Amino acid sequence: MKFAIFGNTYQAKKSSHAENLFRLLELHNAQLCICREFHHFLTNDLHLNIPAAELFDGDNFCADMVISIGGDGTFLKAASRVGKKNIPILGINTGRLGFLADISPEEMEETFDEIYNNHYKVEERSVLQLRCDDEKLMKSPYALNEIAVLKRDSSSMISIHTAINGAPLTTYQADGLVIATPTGSTAYSLSVGGPVIVPHSKTIAITPVAPHSLNVRPIVICDDWEITLDVESRSHSFLVAIDGRSESCRETTRLHISRADYSIKVIKRFDHVFFDTLRNKMMWGVDVR
């Protein structure tokens, strides 16, 4: 099998996990291609001996499987590079919470044995697409987690006129609005009061950030509907964050958000259950008294 590998370039203290990953792949006689930035970090900064591998930049790679070693942020970067390639991604978690990258370093050996025995699941996760006339945003308009509209740091709250399939929904007076996939429901959306959504529910959550009215609540809609946003701001600009990558946007820019025409494939161990993840990662049901 051929693996394309992306990694976190800020976790020098966890270099042993990367060493173990390459040791296991070498045992399986795997073909490797490594993101050049990650390879430079491993060899020049950490001085690790890495097996012979192809190096690649951007999305210029081809593989049977992608490995992301880091946290969910590293996984999102890998997913943006995979794009429409239809290559499944395995996330090894050396970060903190780890909803996307949920294979612990201690599970790596078992996991690769299962992969080589074809004993694993592939989950398809929906992706959001942004359409607008802003060239900067259109360079990378896809989000696995969320697309957020936010006020600038120094400005007052913004007015976000929101329509669903052309029909007016409401005008949010708030610090922002988070449009999240089910995958992104446990990320930024959750932190601003959005609902946890089962990954395969084919929905989109719309959650305001610090709304001025207490009767404004999150809403969940079908993911084959289109959301249109028109934003008013005293500073005449606002921020658009696509999976955390933010760009300033002009007030006159109309945003159209809908489900993309492709999905991201995520590799899970065969016994993986989403509700187990909720209990373990979010400590549901734990009595701390």
From TrEMBL:
GO terms for biological process: NAD+ metabolic process; NADP+ biosynthetic process. Keywords: ATP-binding, Cytoplasm, Kinase, NAD, NADP, Nucleotide-binding, Transferase. It comes from the Bacteria. It catalyses: NAD(+) + ATP = ADP + NADP(+) + H(+). InterPro entries: ATP-NAD_kinase_N (IPR017438), ATP-NAD_kinase_PpnK-typ_C (IPR017437), NAD/diacylglycerol_kinase_sf (IPR016064), NADK (IPR002504). It holds the Pfam family NAD_kinase_C. It is an enzyme of class 2 (transferase). NAD(+) binds at residues 72-73, 77, 145-146, 175, 186-191, 210. The keyword NAD applies. Its cofactor is a divalent metal cation. Its EC number is 2.7.1.23. The active site is at residue 72. GO terms for molecular function: ATP binding; metal ion binding; NAD binding; NAD+ kinase activity. GO terms for cellular component: cytoplasm. It is found in: Cytoplasm. NCBIfam families: PRK01911.1. Belongs to the NAD kinase family. This is NAD kinase. It comes from Bacteroides helcogenes (strain ATCC 35417 / DSM 20613 / JCM 6297 / CCUG 15421 / P 36-108).
